[in-house]
């Protein structure tokens, strides 16, 4: 069981909940803060104080006062009217993350909701009742209003959910689990939808996949080095210490570890004096991507525990301040950085693929073909990789430099962070397929060189890869191989077959 406090949620804990289905519960002291915050809201309502979102309209309607007897209607109308998401739903794992993050944010005790709201959100997480949340429709400021409204619908027994492998009306899933729909009280609708949980949830799932892919990219690159008789000298520790970037130093160290007992790598002057950049500069390029990913991780772990509601309630209700913590700019930047970082892992991978298949750049059979001319071998696999990296270049255009005014110019600058997070996830999927192609080509190259000469660590990767994709003995439908290899990389548990695997 993982305890949520509103202050201490980590990416590692998110991984346990999302991938290992670990249960969650709310810290009692955090719930005490929630109760105090709720008491403050009820006092505001009873005393008829004018506070945004409690007894006023929203956005441009913030100057419209709402009578006490219509406060419940205000919250219900808010959720229904703002549920304007369109397009395909977020992956279930992302929607589950969204529910968990919203509960954690409310546990901070600044939002004025009742404890039952948090309890019900955690019920959804623990019982795998996953809201169907369309991916498109958020500007990434004023919170992820449209996506989070679809999440909030489930609490009131409306909208749809994924439950036990089926997509259904949420009321049916709630009934099957004996959960009663909630009637939203003052401030609660706004508390549920003002936040960055859609972009952050998508970012978390993307980051966890990107982190694994970055590790895999190094191991696959090491195998490519063996297939090309790469020069190991360029990975010497002193070279990278001389520059000073820790991520570059670490990448070089891992490559040296993977190749420490290889009989296929070479030294300067043995076959050639130096390798092309896509080989020689692996630590510099991959290390720079790690720098960006480390930045992304830091921002995600801050945002996971952030109060992103508006208004926020302080000092037992003595201060209720309308601010802008719902603005997604920090995550928008982080997602754009992640897009670029992962796109570059694919870019340099595609250049290594070219070196593996181009007979003008190596001494291997042209296109790794078993019968050059009669059999095309890996020729068009490189085309596919080139297409994917070019698509990534379009997707990597920063979403965060865009903005468009909304709500009659009341909300006149927005982050587009949710678009950035969605595009980052698309780039990760494309990059994984590029690395799958490199893996297929590298395995073929080392077979030609002699598998028995491989390093212990890369040989484990080769054996795992061969469980997914057989050797190329003749031409076949290679798209199936690429998809199997990509799926294998996504599901792979690296620590099971790589010794001393640490960052």
From TrEMBL:
Question: Looking at the keywords, is Lyase present?
Answer: yes
Fill in the PTM field for this protein.
Contains an active site 4-methylidene-imidazol-5-one (MIO), which is formed autocatalytically by cyclization and dehydration of residues Ala-Ser-Gly.
Report the locations given in the UniProt record: Cytoplasm
PROSITE patterns tied to this protein: PAL_HISTIDASE (PS00488)
Q: What is its main location?
A: cytoplasm
UniProt modified residues of type 2,3-didehydroalanine (Ser): 142
UniProt pathway:
Amino-acid degradation; L-histidine degradation into L-glutamate; N-formimidoyl-L-glutamate from L-histidine: step 1/3
Keyword ATP-binding (UniProt): no
Q: What is this protein called?
A: Histidine ammonia-lyase
């Amino acid at each position: 069981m993982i305890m949520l406090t509103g202050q201490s949620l980590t990416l590692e804990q998110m991984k346990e909940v999302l991938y290992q289905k670990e249960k969650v519960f709310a810290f009692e002291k955090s719930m005490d803060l929630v109760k105090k915050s709720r008491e403050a809201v009820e006092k505001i309502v009873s005393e008829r104080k004018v506070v945004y979102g409690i007894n006023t309209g929203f956005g441009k309607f913030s100057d419209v006062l709402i009578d006490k007897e219509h406060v419940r209607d205000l919250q219900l109308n808010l959720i229904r009217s703002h549920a304007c998401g369109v397009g395909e739903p977020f992956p279930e794992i992302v929607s589950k993350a969204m529910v968990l993050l919203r509960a954690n944010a409310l546990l901070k005790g600044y939002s004025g909701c009742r404890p039952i709201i948090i309890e019900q959100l955690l019920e959804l997480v623990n019982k795998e009742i996953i809201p169907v949340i369309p991916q498109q429709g958020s500007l990434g400021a004023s919170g992820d209003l449209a996506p989070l409204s679809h999440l909030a619908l489930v609490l009131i027994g409306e909208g749809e959910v994924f439950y036990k492998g089926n997509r259904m009306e949420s009321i049916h899933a709630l009934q099957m689990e004996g959960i009663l729909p909630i009637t939203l009280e003052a401030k609660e609708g706004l508390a549920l939808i003002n936040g960055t949980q859609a972009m952050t949830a998508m970012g978390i799932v993307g980051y966890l996949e990107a982190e694994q892919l970055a590790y895999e990219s190094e191991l696959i690159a090491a195998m490519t080095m063996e297939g090309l008789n790469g020069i190991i000298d360029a990975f010497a520790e002193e070279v990278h210490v001389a520059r000073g970037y820790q991520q570059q130093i670490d990448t070089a160290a891992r490559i040296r570890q993977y190749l420490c007992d290889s009989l296929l790598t070479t030294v300067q002057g043995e076959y050639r004096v130096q390798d092309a950049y896509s080989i020689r500069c692996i630590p510099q390029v991959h290390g720079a991507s790690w720098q960006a990913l480390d930045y992304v991780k830091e921002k995600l772990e801050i945002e996971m525990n952030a109060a992103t509601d508006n208004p926020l309630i302080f000092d037992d209700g003595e201060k209720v301040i309308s601010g802008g913590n719902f603005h997604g700019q920090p995550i928008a930047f982080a997602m754009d950085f992640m897009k670029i970082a992962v796109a570059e892992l694919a870019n340099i991978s595609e250049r290594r693929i070219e070196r593996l298949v181009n007979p003008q750049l190596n001494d291997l059979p042209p296109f790794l073909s078993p019968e050059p001319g009669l059999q095309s071998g890996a020729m068009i696999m490189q085309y596919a990789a080139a297409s994917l990296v070019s698509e990534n270049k379009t997707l990597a255009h920063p979403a965060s430099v865009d903005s468009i005014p909304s709500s009659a110019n009341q909300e006149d600058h927005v982050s587009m962070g949710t678009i950035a997070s969605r595009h980052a996830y698309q780039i990760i999927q494309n990059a994984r397929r590029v690395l799958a192609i490199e893996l297929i080509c590298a395995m073929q190259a080392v077979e030609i060189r002699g598998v028995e000469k491989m390093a212990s660590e890369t040989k484990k990767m080769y054996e795992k890869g061969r469980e997914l994709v057989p050797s190329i003995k003749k031409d076949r439908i290679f798209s199936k191989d690429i998809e199997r290899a990509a799926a294998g990389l996504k599901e792979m548990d690296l620590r099971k077959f790589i010794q001393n695997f640490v960052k």
